[in-house]
Amino acid sequence: MSTPQQETTILVGKKPTTSYVIATVMSFNAGAKKVILKARGGGAIARAVSTAVMIRDRFLPNQVRISDIKLLTDKVTGQGGKERSVAAIEIVLERV
Amino acid sequence: MSTPQQETTILVGKKPTTSYVIATVMSFNAGAKKVILKARGGGAIARAVSTAVMIRDRFLPNQVRISDIKLLTDKVTGQGGKERSVAAIEIVLERV
Predict the structure, then answer these.
(1) Which distant-in-sequence residues (6+ apart) come within 8 Å of A79 by Cβ?
(2) Which of A13, A31, B6, B18 is 20 to 30 Å from B43 by CA-CA measure?
(3) What span, in angstroms and rounded, lies between the C-alpha atoms of A55 and B67?
(4) Consecutive sets of 10 residues in chain A, 96 residues long: mean pLDDT of each?
(5) Chain A interface includes B72 (CB < 8 A)
(6) A50 to B57: CB separation less than 8 angstroms, yes or no
C-alpha cells in the first residue's frame, strides 16, 4: 500500500527559482496537501518568496494559499569555526 | 500639539541592511507602535527579512514582534514599456 506524502519540505538554495517552482508544482500534483519552502540567507530567501508568489498567483491560482510564514535567525558555523547569524524563512503553501 | 506618528512605513531598497535597522529602531524610539517594512525584488526582500529578524532577535528583543507578513506580486513597467511581475514583501513589526 502506498500512502501519499501529505507534506513536503523543499530546501531552497542556489538553483534558479524555476527549479523550485517546478518541484513545488510536482509535489502538489503528487498529492501533497502542504509544501514547506525553507531558505537561509539573502539570495535563497528571495527565491523562496518568488517561488511562493509564482505558485499562488500564476501556477496554481485559487488552488494554493500561503498559510504561514516564519522568519528565523539561524546560527551558522562558518570557516574557522566562527559562529554567525543568518536570516531564514519558512513559507507554508497549502491546498485550499 | 504634536501627535506622535503611530505607524511608520520604511521602504527597503538598495542601502545596506544596517541602514534599515537603524531607521526601524529610531522609528520605535520616536514612539511608533508599528513599523512596516516594504520591499520589492530579490535583494530588497532579503534585506527586509534580515532587518526584521535583527530587530526582533537582537536590537529590540522582547519589545517588538513580527505581527504580519504579506507576500505580493507587483506589476512593474520596465524599460521599453514591457510589464513584468516582481515579488514583494510587507513585514509588520509591532511593539509588544
Answers:
(1) none
(2) B6
(3) 24
(4) 76 96 96 96 92 96 96 87 90 97
(5) yes
(6) no
Quote the cell numbers at residue A78.
562558518
Question: Of B93, B15, B21, B87, which Cα lies nearest the Cα of B50?
Answer: B21
- Structure letter (DSSP) for residue A24: H
Q: Do A71 and B52 touch (CB under 8 A)?
A: yes
Name every chain A residue with its beta carbon within 8 A of the beta carbon of B43.
42, 46
A53, A54, A72 member nearest B53 (Cβ): A72
Which run of H or E residues covers position B28?
helix B17-29
Q: For residues B22 and B51, what is the distance between their CA atoms, to the nearest angstrom?
A: 9
Measured between alpha carbons, how far is A93 from A33 in angstroms, rounded to an integer?
A: 8
CB contact under 8 A, A53 and B73: yes
Give the three cell numbers for residue B73. Answer: 506580486
Q: How many Å from the N-terminal Cα to the C-terminal Cα in chain B?
A: 26
**pTM for the predicted model, two decimal places:** 0.87
CA–CA distances in Å: residue A12 to residues A19, A81, B89: 9, 24, 17
Nearest to A21 by CA among A58, A44, A54: A54
- The answer to whether the complex's ipTM is over 0.90 is no
